[in-house]
Amino acid sequence: MKEYTPMEIQDLPKITASKQDFSCPFFTVRHDSLQHPGDGSSEYYVIEFPTVAAVIAEHEGEFLFVSQYRHPIRERTVEFPMGRVDEHELIEEAANRELQEESGFRANSLTRLFTLVSFVGQADHHIEFFLAKDLVESTKQADPGEYNLTTQWMSPEEIDDAITQGIINHSETIAAWYKFKLTQK
Prior knowledge:
The protein is α+β, with helices and mostly antiparallel strands.
């Protein structure tokens, strides 16, 4: 396999001013003024998200998914359990907490897999994925905004079919599933 070498960025734009324009419990919006190398300048708005912990839970060759209502798109989605990491919370603790809140399971074995970055044109949204095994039943404790959560176990073939049919259309889940499959060979 050919070795991949990322492109080097020779001259990054200089941030000449930066201020927070908006803040809420879920994200902030930062306004940056940029000076480009040579000539030119631009304005950029960046959405700053807390890091998200996500869980690929496996039991006897099947994988756990949650289905929940996502208000911005006014649809239910099928996705891996995930949620933001609270301030001062260890990311592994957040992964197990999210797994419990959304599915009613906890993992005795939690292994960090990889990081995905989404919305790179507008945000700094980092999602840390973990593999959860040796699951034990616990109490489901969904957040108030996560009502009517349902869980479903799927085989790898069922996952691929659900993606192909558009049943799973959550981009981070699709990207994570294929990266997981590629790294587990």
